[in-house]
Model the fold of this input.
Amino acid sequence: MRIGEDKAVALILSLFILLFMSLLVVAFLDFITIEQQIITNNLRSKQATFIAEAGVEAKISQIRYNWNNQDVWDDPIELDLGQTGSCSVSAEVSNPGGSNPIKTVTIDSIGRVMGFQRRIQTRVLVYPKVNTNKIIVDYWKDLGV
Done:
């Protein structure tokens, strides 16, 4: 082999190595981009869940602090958190009637963050005894979207 042929082989071999390394970098950058998108989506979904949970807590507080004014128990709540997100809360009050004084309040809260939304549904039992303000969470469901 002559020196010129050795240089040509080395040049071709180094170009193939460079091409292979470039393909690895492109694949790695694509993987990083997808991972970043998954992390961001997960973060937004969790934020929407937390905002929906805050809406449920706001409704329970509204019931607790308006104990004697049961007309506001089923009033809707709209929480605007600016760029962070928003929340819509509705409630339905039911009373089995008869000698059972326990009221059931079904709370439906939807938290929204940048195109993501999560829905929490909760049922609380309200025991109307004097000076007790007893509220018990019967169930708490994350209904997802």
User: Anything to note?
Assistant: Residues 3-144 form a domain with the Pantoate--beta-alanine Ligase; Chain: A,domain 2 fold (CATH 3.30.1300.30). The helical segments are 3-65.
